[in-house]
């Protein structure tokens, strides 16, 4: 069911940021996300929610969410998070789009306003992606590590065919580009955001900009790519092959083997 808010028709203003949220049986974490968003001092945004036909109280929570910022909402069966994001993209109006999952939460009340100030400085229209760091939380809700490296490191990872230290929840996509390009590849379960980056900056000629270590958002451990790192590796290789880009290098293989050995030794010591 496609359910725009009652005031959607009258609201023709284009917001600066479109926040696209994918949900599925998220009754436990969705209220936390919505509360963190409500506490933001930044108001020039719209919220779009694509739900995968949840069987719990998720849709009830969304319908009860009273906010002028809720621009679009749908609840119907989909093929996963990328399908949900693609559905919502066509309804976005923002200059920049932020794609999130329900287990993401904003940090300080100034998190969005600080990022918006940075984005307003991005005057080059050829920059299609701008990103910052986010904090990864463990199962206990404690800060585990920071995701989102400076671009020289990201570029090095891309050149060697590695999965990149660039979480989708810290990445802002230029709205005009996303609304005019082919959406996320729904045949991929984990690496479609990686493929989007390659399509835009390696094949499309667009640029990417690092906004600095802002840690504006906290990411839960329920993220698919966090939980299934090995699948992400193989999908990364599949993506590069499909786009006609060079595969993994000996450097990547050495790094991967070293990481595996470290994990084995760590398990053995415990």
TrEMBL record:
<dbReference type="InterPro" id="IPR050834">
    <property type="entry name" value="Glycosyltransf_2"/>
</dbReference>
<feature type="domain" description="Glycosyltransferase 2-like">
    <location>
        <begin position="18"/>
        <end position="109"/>
    </location>
</feature>
<dbReference type="InterPro" id="IPR029044">
    <property type="entry name" value="Nucleotide-diphossugar_trans"/>
</dbReference>
<dbReference type="Pfam" id="PF00535">
    <property type="entry name" value="Glycos_transf_2"/>
</dbReference>
<dbReference type="InterPro" id="IPR001173">
    <property type="entry name" value="Glyco_trans_2-like"/>
</dbReference>
<protein>
    <recommendedName>
        <fullName>Glycosyltransferase 2-like domain-containing protein</fullName>
    </recommendedName>
</protein>
């Amino acid at each position: 069911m496609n359910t725009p808010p009652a005031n959607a028709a009258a609201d023709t203003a284009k917001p600066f940021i479109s926040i696209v949220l994918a949900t599925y049986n998220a009754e436990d974490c969705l209220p936390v996300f919505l509360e963190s968003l409500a506490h933001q001092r930044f108001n020039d945004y719209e919220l779009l929610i694509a739900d995968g036909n949840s069987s719990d109280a998720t849709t009830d929570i969304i319908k009860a969410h009273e906010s002028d910022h809720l621009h679009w909402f749908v609840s119907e069966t989909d093929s996963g998070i990328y399908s949900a994001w693609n559905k919502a993209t066509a309804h976005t109006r923002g200059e920049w789009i932020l794609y999130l999952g329900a287990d993401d939460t904003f940090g300080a009340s100034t998190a969005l306003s600080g990022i918006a100030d940075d984005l307003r400085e991005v005057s080059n229209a050829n920059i299609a992606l701008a990103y910052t760091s986010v904090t990864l939380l463990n199962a206990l809700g404690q800060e585990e590590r920071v995701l989102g490296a400076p671009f020289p490191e990201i570029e090095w990872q891309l050149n060697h065919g590695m999965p990149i230290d660039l979480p989708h929840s810290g990445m802002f996509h230029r709205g005009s580009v996303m609304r005019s390009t082919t959406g996320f590849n729904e045949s991929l379960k984990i690496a479609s955001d990686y493929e989007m980056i390659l399509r835009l900056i390696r094949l499309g000629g667009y640029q990417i900009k690092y906004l600095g270590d802002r840690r504006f958002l906290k990411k839960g451990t329920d993220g698919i790519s966090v939980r299934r790192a090995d699948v992400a590796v193989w999908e990364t290789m599949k993506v590069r092959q499909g786009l006609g880009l060079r595969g993994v290098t000996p450097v990547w293989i050495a790094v991967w083997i070293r990481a595996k050995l470290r994990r084995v030794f760590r398990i053995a010591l415990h």
